[in-house]
Amino acid sequence: MNAEFQLWAAVDLMSGKAVRLRQGRGDSAWVVSEDPVGLALAWQEAGVWGVHVVDLDAALGQGENRQLVRQLCGRLRVPVQVGGGVRSLQAYWELREAGAARVILGTLAVRQPEVVQQLAAADGDGLVVAADLREGWVLVEGWKQGSGELGETFARRMRQYGCRHLLVTAVARDGMDLGPDLPLLRSLLAAFGPGILAAGGIRNQEDLTALRALAGEGLAGAVVGTALAKGSLSLRERAHGD
C-alpha cells in the first residue's frame, strides 16, 4: 500500500466499552472490548496510522464518554481523530485541547456551515467533516435523520468552505461485511478532490487494495472497525503497506 495511504483503526465507545454497530443502529451493538484504551494501544502497537474514536452515546443523545476520550487522546502516540456528538465550537476546541489531532463535525457542519468556514480558516488540519451517506443522501443526528442534501453537493460545498478532510461513510454497508462502496467514493472524490477518508463495509486486505487504487484520485485512507474486531483483516499484513 502506498505509504501515504492512512489506515485508521476505529474504536467506537458506548457505556465505557468499545463496541461495533451495524448501520449505526444502537440496538445492534456488540462489545469488542471492555478496555477501549487497551484496545487502542494494541492497534497502535500493530502499526495503524491513527485511531478513529467515536463517542456513540454522545452521537445518539444518550450520554457521553468524554473522560474516556480524553484518556485515549492522552495515552496514544499516533494521531487520534475524534467524533460523535460534537455539536458546538466549544466541544470542538475542548477535544483539540485534550489532544485530538482531528475532530469530526457531522450534524453541526450541515446545520451551521459557517462553523466549517470558521474552523477551516483557524484550524484547517484539525477539522474533519463527516459525509454520512445512505442512498446518496447526507444523514445527521447520529444517522437518524436525513438532511435533504445529496452527498456530491455537500462535498463540493465543504471544499468551497475550505475543508481539507472529508470522512465518507457508506452507512448501509457499515458493519455489514459488504465491501466498500467504490462508486460512491469515486463520485465524492470527483466533487471534493483530495483528502477523503473512506469508511463502511471494509472486510479484508482485498478491499484495502481496491481502496488503495483510488489514492491517485485523492483517497487519503480508510477507517476500519468491524474487520479488525472480527480478525478478517490482520494488521500483520501491514497497516501502512510496502
Structure report:
The protein is of the alpha/beta class and 242 residues long. The protein is 35% helix and 30% strand. The chain has ten helices and twelve strands. Strands 1-4-5-6-7-10-11-12 form an eight-stranded parallel β-barrel, surrounded by seven helices. The longest helix is centred in the first third of the chain and has 11 residues, at 36-46. The N and C termini lie close together (6 Å). Residues 238-242 have low confidence and may be disordered.
List keywords for this structure.
eight-stranded parallel β-barrel, 12 strands, disordered C terminus, 242 residues, TIM Barrel, alpha/beta, 10 helices
Summarize the structure.
With 242 residues, this protein is an alpha/beta fold. The chain has one domain (6-234): TIM Barrel. It has ten helices and twelve strands.
Write the SSE topology.
Layout: E1 6-14, E2 17-22, E3 25-33, H1 36-46, E4 50-55, H2 56-60, H3 66-75, E5 80-83, H4 89-97, E6 102-105, H5 107-111, H6 113-123, E7 127-134, E8 137-140, E9 145-150, H7 151-160, E10 165-170, H8 182-192, E11 196-199, H9 205-212, E12 219-224, H10 226-230
